[in-house]
Amino acid sequence: MRKFIQAVACAASAGVAIILAFILYIQATLPDNFYVAEGEEFIINSKLTITATATQGGYAKNLDPKVFDSTGNCYSINLNLFRSVPIKQVQVHVVERKMVIPGGTPFGIKMFTEGVMIVGMSDIQVGTENVNPAKEAGLKVGDILTHIDGEKVTGNTDVAEYISSSGGDEICMTVNRDGALYDFHLQPIHSEYDKTYKAGIWVRDSSAGIGTMTYYDPENMCFAGLGHAICDVDTGEIMPLSSGEIVDVNISGVHAGESGRPGELKGTFSSGTMGELLSNTEKGIFGVLYDPYFGGEEVPMALKQEVEPGPAVILSTISGNKPQEFEIVIEKVNYSDTSPNKNMVVKITDEKLLSTTGGIVQGMSGSPILQDGKLVGAVTHVFVNDPTRGYGIFAENMDIELISVEKSKIAA
Length: 412
Prior knowledge:
With 412 residues, this protein is α+β, with helices and mostly antiparallel strands. It folds into three domains: 14-95, Immunoglobulin-like (Sandwich), CATH 2.60.40; 100-110 and 206-411, Thrombin, subunit H; 123-199, PDZ domain (Pdz3 Domain, Roll). 17% of the residues lie in helices and 47% in strands. The chain is built from six helices and 27 strands. The chain has helices at 2-29, 65-69, 133-137, 156-164, 351-357, 395-411; strands at residues 33-37, 50-56, 59-60, 74-81, 85-95, 99-102, 106-121, 124-126, 129-131, 144-148, 151-152, 171-177, 180-186, 189-191, 196-198, 201-217, 222-225, 241-255, 264-281, 284-289, 299-300, 310-316, 324-333, 344-348, 368-371, 374-383, 386-394. It has a six-stranded antiparallel β-barrel with strand order 7-16-17-20-19-18. The longest helix has 28 residues, at 2-29. It starts with a helix and ends with a helix.
């Protein structure tokens, strides 16, 4: 009997531990802040039964309906699992429901960096030895070179000319590393092969590629695209934007993706400029269009808790410059703030798209995702080993970033 009681106690303890671990996991995956459209009830679309109770002063309370009807209001919500198990308290902010025009239109990206990025290092042969002045000075791949001896660096040519004309004298390189500025002193070495002075670094000052517009805000003529940052192809670091533009592009072909080898859209840039780039962030690229975008009708933007697993569509262009609608399934939704551009797992189910591209390919990043008539997000990444599946970002996350960009533009 005693052993039986001990076994029951152990089982009960294990069960409690599992439940506590599950609650902690749910707590970690739910953010501390949500938004709700004015006049609407706060509901989380989840397979789990997560209920919400408004609170005031720590006590459950039925709030005045005016709280929900007034943009700018904020209130506390207790989230419960299965209606009775407390999870956490979150803040809910009342906002106006935003109306935007979904994109799906491809565009060419021309971008110049602020300073130049160090993308590689190479040794210089001196006699029988190989040396690297930049590495010895402490410079690293991924550093952003902003100044040489106090002079602003604007491009690759500046760096090459300054180093080659140094005569071997010590120079001071100022770099931006993780948002902080550092000075490094190095002495260029005369290359016996090139007959010129070198520092042992490779730098890049620009980038170009094809992406997809996610949405256009007709109130301020701003656009959002890609859903992820433009990163250097060698370092993987976000390229710091100095200036850039987007141009019309015509999709002329597709290299279909397959397991282990992502595909890509092929296209040609036109001479006409569509707009100016203002920001390159982990949540996408943002800017202003020079002319109004007439891509389609306005639709409401979904808030993250309104997105749910199930059927949806994407707008994307795989030929010419006109977007088409393709069927997908949202397989998983992740509310956590830890992955700002990997909020959904999506799977391509449209036979036409699968037969043409094999699934998600490079250039489709930014393709808007629509569910129940609302813009819920954009395609961001493809799974290398399964091109039919990939990640998506919440439209809400992109819009928060766009609002920040707009405020910076007004302040400037």
